[in-house]
Design a protein that fits this description.
Elements lengths: L5 E4 L11 H9 L4 E8 L5 E3 L20 H4 L20 H11 L2 E6 L6 H15 L6 E5 L2 H10 L5 E5 L6 H7 L4 E5 L5 H9 L3 E5 L8 H6 L3 E4 L2 H8 L17
Parallel strand pairs: 1-2, 1-9, 2-4, 4-5, 5-6, 6-7, 7-8, 8-9
Antiparallel strand pairs: 2-3
Bound molecules: SN-glycerol-3-phosphate and magnesium ion.
The site of magnesium ion has 3 residues, from strand 2.
Length: 258
Amino acid sequence: MIVTPITAHRGLSSLAPENTLSALRLAAEHGVQWVEIDAIACGDGTIVMWHDNSVDRCSDGSGAMSQHSAQSIKQLDCGSWFSEQYRGETMATIEEAILLIKELGLGLNLEFKLYENSVETVVAPVLALLNQHWENFDKLIISSFDQPALEYCHSQQPELQLAKLYEKIPDNWLQQMQAINAVTCHCDYSVLQQSQVAELHLAGYEVYCYTPNDTSAVEQHWEWGIEGIITDYPQKFQQHLGTSTDSDSSAGSHCETE
Ligand code: G3P
Ligand code: MG
């Protein structure tokens, strides 16, 4: 169902600041077909493309997301922490991100992170935006570690393609996956076992691995039959898997996401 084995994690986050419009554009320029981004809420209810529950690590500002608003986030420099080239990059709202990803023709893996917020606060407004702007729902996966977020999506729009995220896969994984009629399971490659891949496949689920950043890290996983990876370094895997459309895929790398 996902038509590419490679998804760019937080955009092309090894070459541009993670979860920024630049990282999305760069993914498209490198021929990546799908991007993963995180969606979280600010204090005023604005939903932004951002990973952490504070602005400290990836901007020149400080403070919890709950202290920020649509106005204050736009004052932050979200690029110079990564490199001078990206000084002045601003935090994007999730609406800006959705519109750009659609314009670029990419598939979207949108991950909800609730942190201390309610499902209604974080998920409901994003579903409304997707229904307003998104056209090809075959090219949309909603993913989350938060079971209530996925259950809400399933109850509101049963046709949505949902992915359950796990670090360590719990004993009740099948119950959780069935409750949301999941299509895929997204697992931490570093703890995933061959037997778990087999069980997931037997139950009818596709298996994706986050976040391998070296091709050697998932050699075995491909042999186990995983469908794809979510990586900061799609350029390495494109070369390795022979899917590169990028003339400069040897371009240098900057850093790995935390
Ligand atoms: O979607 C996979 C991955 O993004 C999950 O972990 O913390 O990078 O959002 P994280
Ligand atoms: Mg994520």
